Structures are given as structure tokens and as C-alpha cells.
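User: For documentation purposes, I need each entry recorded in a consistent format: the amino acid sequence on its own, followed directly by the corresponding C-alpha cells. There are two entries in this batch. Please keep commentary to a minimum and don't merge the entries.

Assistant: Recorded as requested. Entry 1:
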Amino acid sequence: MNTEKVRCAIIGSGPGGYTAAIYASRAGLKPIVFTGSAPGGQITMTDKIDNFPGYPEGISGFGLMEDIKKQAERFNAEIRSESIVKVDFSKRPFTLCTENDNVILAESVIVSTGASARWLGLESENKFRGMGVSTCATCDGFFYRKKDVAVIGGGDTACSEALYLSSLCNKVYLVVRRDVLRASKVVQDTLMKKENIEILWQQKPLEILGDESGVTGLRLVSSVDEKQTDINVLGVFVAIGNIPNTEIFKGQLDLDESGYIITKGNTSYTNIAGVFAAGDVQDSRYKQAITAAGSGAKAAIDCERWLMENPLQ
């Protein structure tokens, strides 16, 4: 077991973690980024990103993360493909334990562990992920202009995704497991007025259909009479929620009812002085690469200033 002291430890990568590393490195904090088991975060599964500034021809999620990572490394940020499995924020320096039984004593910590999309659990869902199956209409909706798509879910996220897609697509099927929507009334009222949105009530996805070119349809089964129905769609957007990756922080960092880290006001400060949060792990609203990157910059700036005001004795 090795013990190591660092000024700034960044837990998690992705747009938030890697951007925090750029800013922290330029500030001379010599950060170490612990990427965990999914370097770059869930955005690496996105086939093409057209809405991140600076890439007029678009770029893959993996390519974007590689570029930001290389930029962080240019300023001497250290990137480690280790997972942090346990933390102790009760006293400073903070103690972080890695999967390899190494101990990191950190003067400050930036948490950027992101959130994981909830999936349906279908084998065909994995097969066509990135080939017509997505969890982000804002990211991928553009590729389905004037085409028919399906959105799975009945909450605010699913309804908002359907509304966004209705302005781009020919037709949007909203597949709802129950006989009611869980979205807010104002969202439901807006949804019902859209002529190109059709709600398929009390239906469960059974299989995503497709071929070597990608998704071609969706097979549904009625929760009432178990009758199966196929609909022809070229895109399937799974919108059944996200799970913030905050399990190891429970009982130490303040979390909201959904498990997202609560930050103070318009800052990255958590309830523990010296611990900051960035990216989707503290953002249940926007969930975009660009907003995660912006919050990573904020976290590093907050961290730098806090360290200047609170040197470790």
C-alpha cells in the first residue's frame, strides 16, 4: 500500500473533470485525475457531437474527450486509470482510497464522477447503442431531421425530449409504460398540443429492431393484453432517468433526493470546505458536455482560491 500527498485530486473524468484538470494545472495545483473505469465518461459513447464549440465539422464523443485530456496533459495534469472506491472527508487532508489499495492524502478534492443513464436492459439496446439508440435528444436529435423516432419514458425528461424532437422530426412516438404521464402539468399541456407527437399508452419496449445500418423499428408489448406491436422508427431515445454516481459520497456530502451533489449558490462548493463538485454529478437539469466543462472550470477556480486562503498547516 502506497501513500501519496497531493494538492488537488480530481475524481472522475469527462468534460467536467478534464476541464477542471486544465484550469487546476495552469494554476500550478499539479492535479491528479482518477478516471475510474470509464475514462471520458458516458459522452464517449456518443457517435457524433455537433454542438460543442470549436468543432465546426463535429466530432465523436471519444475524440472530444481525447482532445480535452491531451490539453490537460499539456499543462502537466496527471491522468490515472484508477477508481476511487472510498473517501474520508471528515478531516483534512482528505483520504481517498483507490481500487489498488493506494491511499491519496489530498489538500482539496474536485468530484466529477458524472451520472449514468438508466437503460432498459435489452440486449438489442446494447447492440444498437450509438447506431440509433441514444439517451440525449439535444445531442443526437439533429441526425433524425424529418424522420420518425420514439422516446421511451413518461416523466419530465421524456416529455421534454419528445417536445424537442417534435421540432426536428417528422413524427415522435412517446412510449409510456403507464396510463398517465409523470411530467408537470405545463409540460403535459404543451405536449398534447403537438400534432406530430403520438403517445402510446401502457406499452413496454420488448426489442429494438435493426440491421447493419442501425435501428429500423421498435417492438412493443401491451401491459394490458400482452399484444405485440411493431413501429417503424430510425431512432430510439431512452429517457427513463439518470443515476448520479455518488454512492461513495453518501453520508459525507449533501445530496438531493435524487442523489445529486448539492452545491452552494452559483459555486462549486459542497457542504465540506475544500471539496468541490463539477459536471453531471451536481447537474440534473442541463446535462450537456459544454455545461459540464464550464462547471469544471468553475470548480478549479474555486479550488485554487480556496487553497490560497486555507493553506494546509
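Entry 2:
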Amino acid sequence: MMIESMKTTLFFLVLTLAFASCEQAEKPEANYDPEARLEALGITLPSPPQPVANYVNGVQAGNLIFLAGKGPRYADGREITGKVGQDVSIEQGYEGARLTAINQLAVLKSMLGNLNRVKRIVKVLGMVNCDSSFVEQPKVINGFSDLMVEVFGERGKHARAAVGMASLPRGQAVEIELVVEVY
């Protein structure tokens, strides 16, 4: 009987330690502060852009958030439009992708309340409005990816696709979707 009691106690001790270590792994480090990084970069998040059709900005499924595609829209409503490589330079496309990242962060913050809840930027789908001869889509979408790493550090590194599109809604130069893991 004593051995069975000791086995039960040992089992619960191991179980408690396992849960405690899992719980610790699920909390960000004390120095992790994407909101402070945004402030240091001089970035103020705008009000999140509202959907233009019958969809929502984002959907959370478990610990993943799937953000709908957003484009390079300034707070005053103007957008960066045109075909990259023709009307829009690669550098302007890069800036458009960076602006899109800021818009996606605004959506994410509105959903989470605080960007410190971001555990990892998981996947990015970057679409570039261009003709079939343009092959520099990765250089454009780097504007998005670079900002994710500036804000989230190693947690901002993600899997990615950067593809060309014959057109995008309202003629915008880029559109980017995002999948994020959260605490």
C-alpha cells in the first residue's frame, strides 16, 4: 500500500513539473516588448483598415490568427497603386509592403489588445501587382518581412511566399496575408 501511495505521489509530482514547465514556456521573456520596438522605430499604428467586402479582418482558430489580405493604405485613405516595375519602383513597392505591415499590425493589436501576445509570425503570403516579366517580388515583400523582424526579433522570422499577380483590388501595388501564433 505504501509503494502505491509513493507511486501516485511521484506521478502527480512529475505531472505538476511537466505542466509548470509548459506554462513557463508559454510566457514571453521579460524583455520581449514589440510595442516598445514600434515606439523606438517611430511607428504609430493607425486605426485598423476596415474590410471592403463580406469578410472580417482576422479569425482566431486556437492559438493561430489568420489575417485577411491588406494593402498599402495610408491613414488618410490614399493607397500606393500601380504595377511594380512599371508605374511603381521596387523601392516604392518595398515601402508599400512596409506600410502594409503597419496596417496588419494595427489589425493584430485591435484583435489582441497588446502585441506582446504575439508568439511568432508564422506565414506570410505577399502578392505583388506586376506584369509577367517582373521577377523581383521577393525584393518588394522584404518591406513587410524586414519590419516583422524589426518589431518581433527572431519571432518575426517567418515562412513566406512572394508572388506576382496580374492585378490586385483597387489597383494596389501589394496585398499581404498573415498567419500569427499567439500566447
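Summary note for entry 2:
The two ends are 42 Å apart (CA to CA).
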